[in-house]
């Protein structure tokens, strides 16, 4: 018995059993199904039989409240929220393009501000600058991917080899740079923790050289961590059969081998080492930073309530200003860390469950939330400029100066060169003589 006829036989038998006519299922056999197929084919419209059969079965299922589940069916991630996620996936292409455009502009301004001389002097600003650089490249590379996959591909249904090559490059490039962003965020949190916890030795521990090592490590470590992904995913081919007289062609797509230890290792590395471990460390550091902020606020209240001589009051005011500046920086970095946790923690949990449960959960749940996770990751990189402007007065002042300098430079007189000033001084001396 062929697979098609066996499937039809199972469908009719389940429909009859659900309707209470299980005894009639004996008369539904392969011979009758095949004869019905031949009779429909003799009418000259064989292509309509499949659609008519699907419609009839669908109507019967809805009337009898019957759900026929194929072999290997898994019921993960069921519910009304699945329809909501599917509705968002339909507009993800437009939303991601808008977020990427805003994010590229915002992170370019971040780099422009953080490279100013007064801002670049702080090592922590160097970490923020390279974090913005990584986010810029992630969003720039995501734009052609979103345009083709969500705008061009649904219309043309064209899967050429060049698209598969770019998709493979997009997967590896985005994962490497996104992992670099995770490493830089982790370095940022550890750097701030050391600066506050060991404030008396921060000038020894938080040096320019160690900052450069942290940045370099953040870009060299991700390609090593992503080696299992390089080995698991590859370009696969699929033969598309002829439809309505059109010739068959080969579709190229990127897929992975769902079996083997390397596939499981890839999920464990991606979920545990790249996602959950940094999230756990950032959670501990974030809780400690919140406690440090609370202790600093209590300390400032005690200083304000302390009555002393005028000289001591001036010292207390200076210390109060310094503490407020430190608190603003800590709050800004804490907001960056919490936003990172909201973005990365769900991905780590889904990746870990995909490794534990298997391929079925990955296809039903991880793929379902793929667009939503991409949106959160892009939004995380695009919103940092707003956090910097809203929580750092020095960043706002430097950005304002940068804008005013560029807009007013055309109206300012040119600075005299060294030779011009020398000639002017010589003429002045001759006149005096």
UniProtKB/TrEMBL annotation:
TM region(s), chain numbering: 91-115, 127-151, 163-191, 212-233, 267-294, 332-352, 372-391
Region (Disordered): 414-433
Compartment(s): Membrane
Location of the G-protein coupled receptors family 1 profile domain: 106-388
CDD domains (alphabetical): 7tmA_FMRFamide_R-like
Key words, A-Z: Membrane, Transmembrane, Transmembrane helix
Skewed-composition ranges (Polar residues): 422-433
Main localisation: membrane
Taxonomy, superkingdom: Eukaryota
Similarity comment: Belongs to the G-protein coupled receptor 1 family.
Protein name: G-protein coupled receptor dmsr-1-like
Species annotation: Vanessa tameamea
Biological classification of the source: Eukaryota, Metazoa, Ecdysozoa, Arthropoda, Hexapoda
Gene assigned in the entry: LOC113399421
